[in-house]
Amino acid sequence: MYNEDRYYQQLEDQYYKDQDSDKEAEELADEEYWDQVEGEEEDS
Known about the structure:
Layout: H1 2-43
C-alpha cells in the first residue's frame, strides 16, 4: 500500500509540474507574439 501511495504522489507531482511548464511556455509565446506585433506596427 505504501509504495502505491508513493507512486500516485509522484504521478501527481509530475502532472502538476507539466501543467506549470505548459503555462510558462504559453506566457512566453504570448510575450513573443506581442513583441512581434508591436514591432510590425512600428514598421508600417
